[in-house]
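hi support,

uploading two proteins for the ticket. first:
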Amino acid sequence: MTSAILTRPLKTDQPIETIQELQDHLYNAIQLEFSTVPLYLYSLYSIQTQGYSQWSAGMSALRTIRSVVIEEMLHLCLARNLMIAVGGGDTIRFYDQEMIPTYPSPMLHRLPKLMLHLEPCSTNVMTKVFMPLELPAGTDAPPEPGWYQTIGQFYAAIKLGFERLSGPDLWVHNQPDFQYLSGYWNQDGGGAPLVVCDLPSAIDAIATIVEQGEGADPGNLTVPLDPVSPQEGMTELSHYGKFRQIGLGIDQIGKTWPVPTDPQRTQWDGPVGELAELFDAAYCYLLCLLDALYTSSRMASQPGQTSPRYGLERTFIAAMGGILFPIANLLVRQPVGHDQHAAPAFGYYAFGDAQPKRDQLLDLCARTAAHYPSLGGGDSVLHLIGLLPSV
C-alpha cells in the first residue's frame, strides 16, 4: 500500500496549488479507501455464526461490518469520481498489481504508524486496528514530511485544494458521464453516489466520505444517513461508532473460523489451493468490472438503446455478495492443519491474454467445482459467473 506514496508522493507541508498535486492527493485517497475493503471483508468472512445476535437489540457484527464495507465501496467510487472530474480518471486502474493492496502494510497517511493485517474478527481487532483506522480526529494537526497526521487533515487538504483551484481550468477535462452514479444499495447504512461537476458537488462528495467515517466529529458518533441532505432523526453510526459497538460487545461476533493472519494462496496446494486461487481470480475480475465501468459512458450509443454501463453498475456489488462471499465461505471451512483453516488472500491474479477473462474465470471455477460441487449447479457461483458481463 505504500506504493501510493512512492508512486505519487505528496507535499504534505504545503498547500495544494496545482491540478497535478490535487490528482496526486486523490490517487492516494483512492488507494487509502481501497485498502480498507479487503481488510474489513476478511474480518467479515471469518465470522462463523453469521446470524448471531440477529434478534438482539444490536445488529450482528457481520451485518455491521457489511454495512461499512458497502460504504467504503461508495467512498472508493466517490474518490474516483473526484479524480475523473479533474481530468485524472485515465491514470487509475483497480486491476493493477501496484494498486491492489497487500498485507501486512502500514496504513497510508497515519502517524503513529498503524499496521494493517488480514486477521479474524475479534473485539481486539476492533479496538486496536479498526477503531484507530477510522478514528475521528482533528484536521489541524501539523503535517509531517511526506505524511499527514490524520485522515481528517488529509481530506481537509483535498477540500482546500478544490476550493483554491476551482475554475474553468480545473473542470475542463471532466467526463461526468463516465462517473459512477447508479447501482448502489446499503440496507444497513446510508450515502449515495453523486456526479462531481463543480465545487459544490466536489465538497458534497468529500463530505460523504468524511462524515461516514474518516475525520468525523470526535464528539458525535452519529452521522446523517444522507450526508448531502441531512434530515432530523435519519442517522446512523459512523464507521468508528459501528466498530466501537462491536468492540464493546453490543453487536456480537459469536464464533469465528480459525483462519490465519495475512494468508497467501500459495501456502496451500491441492484442491484448497485451487479454491484460494479461484477467490483471487474472482476478486480480480470484480476489479476488472470496475475498470470497465469507468471506461464506459452512461450515454447510449444509439437512441432507444441501453448503455452497457447499466449492467456494469448493477453488477459489481452484487458480484461481491453472490460470488465472492460463497467462495470465501467455502474456503474458511477448509481445515489445512492443526487448528487452522484456509482463508481468502485478496491477492493479484494474472489473467492471460489468450481468451476473455470471464472465460478464464469460468474454466477455473469448473475445475474447482470438481472438488467442491457446491460451486456448480443451478444458481451457483459457476452459474452466476456465466451471467457476468465479459470484460
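and the second one:
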Amino acid sequence: AMGAIGLSPGDEVIVPATTMSATAMCPLIYGGIPVFADIEDDTFSICVKNVKKLINKKTKAIIAVNLFGHPAELKKLRKLANKHKIYLIEDNAQAIMAKEGKDYCGTIGHIGVFSLNYHKHIHSGEGGICTTNDDYLAKRLQLIRNHAEAVVEDAKVQDLVNLVGFNLRLTELSAVIAKEQLKKLSRHVSKRIDFGLKMCEGVKSLKIRGIETPKIRSDCTHSFYNWVIKYDEKKYGVKRANLVKALQCEGVPCFSGYVKPLYLLPIFQKKIAIGNKGFPFNVSSVNYDKGICPTAEDLFENKIVGLECCAYDYSKNTQKKIVNSIEKVFSSIEKLKDIKLKE
C-alpha cells in the first residue's frame, strides 16, 4: 500500500502508537517516516484530534488500525485525508466484517488491508489481501506484488515510482484455502461477536469496581478479535500483574498490556532502520521520546487486560467459567496486595 500511493523518502505517515509492529514498519521500506499519534482511551483506536495536530506539508498518509475489532473513526479520518489531499489506509487485520454505520471496515479508506495470518478470524496460513475501489491504486498494488520491473515496459506504465517489484503472490493452495474460509466467514465472526458480547454482559452483571468492559460506539459493530477491558489498580491497590497472574492460575488465558507503544522499540529509539547511516531518520527531526503518546503508554503499562477471541474456540460453558473465575479472583483480590511476582 505504501508503494502504491507513491511514498517517497522523507514523506511522513501518521500511525497509531498501539498496534502490531508491521503497521509502523511499512513506511520505512520506502524511506517514509512513521509519526506516532496517541490512541483513544475507550476504543483504543487512533485519536482523530491528535492526527489533526500532526498533519503537515510532509504528510503523505494516515494509517488507521481498527484495533481489537472495533472501527476507528474512519469517516472522520477519510474526510480529513480528503481535505489535505493525503491517503487513508485501513489496517483492518483485526476487524473483518466490523462496520462503521452501514460501511464495512476496510472499505472506507483509499486502501484496506486484511490479514490471512493464522490467528485471525479466518486464515490461509499466512498472507493477506488489499482492497480498493481506485483502479490506479489497484494496478499499482498488483505490479508491486509481482515483479513490476519486468512488465512495466510491455504494459506501457508511465509512472515508475516504487515499481520495484516484490514476490508477494498468494500461492494457489493458500488462495483455495482462503476462498473456502470466506464461505465460513460469517459463522466464524458471529461466534467471536457472541463470545465478546456475552463476556461484557457476564462481567457487567458482577458489578465489579475498577473494570471497564469494551466500549462500542453507537454507530459501530465490533468483531472482537480481542476482548479487552481496562483495570484500575487504584481501586484496590493491587498491581495489574498480580491480577493477571491470579486469573491465569484459574485457567483464564488472559494477557496484559498488549504491545508496547511502538516508538519505544529500539528501531525508533536508536533510529536505525535501513543501512547503517540512520536512514530514513537522518532526513527527519521527528521525536520518538517517551511521553509523546501518554494514553497509549498508560494503557500498556497499567490498564489493559485482554483475551484473544480468535486464538481459542470458546464454548458457552467455557465463557461462563471465565466469568466465574473473574468473580472468584475479585472476591479475594485483597489477598493479592502484598504478593511480589518474580520478574
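thanks. also noticed: The CA atoms of residues 201 and 285 lie 47 Å apart.
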